[in-house]
Amino acid sequence: MPIDELYFDADVMIISLVSDDGILGDETMLKEAPFKDEIFTLDEVMEIKKYYRIKKMVVTL
């Protein structure tokens, strides 16, 4: 997780490339996808929100 002072106490953070445990919205599994390590899980998004004390997170597709 990058540590950047600009993120702390932000009102809103917009984040993309999020999946739920390696499953995309169309039920595609990312086990073998070459970009799977580039995608955040929902747990990671919540961890970022908590760590940086971000008030609202917007997740885009």
Please describe the structure with a list of short key phrases separated by commas or semicolons.
61 residues; alpha/beta; two-stranded parallel ribbon; two-stranded parallel sheet; 1 helix; 4 strands
Unreliable stretches: none
Query: Could you spell the SSE succession in H and E letters?
Result: EEEHE
What is the strand content?
15-25%
Output the radius of gyration: 13 Å
What's the rounded overall pLDDT mean?
Answer: 82
Largest sheet: 2 strands, parallel
Shape verdict: elongated
What is this entry, summarized?
Helix content is 18%, strand content 20%. By secondary structure, the protein is α/β, with parallel strands linked by helices.
3D architecture notes:
The protein has 61 residues and is an alpha/beta fold. The chain has one domain. It is built from one helix and four strands; from the N terminus they run βββαβ. The strands form two sheets. A two-stranded parallel sheet has the order 1-4. A two-stranded parallel ribbon has the order 2-3. The radius of gyration is 13 Å and the shape is elongated.
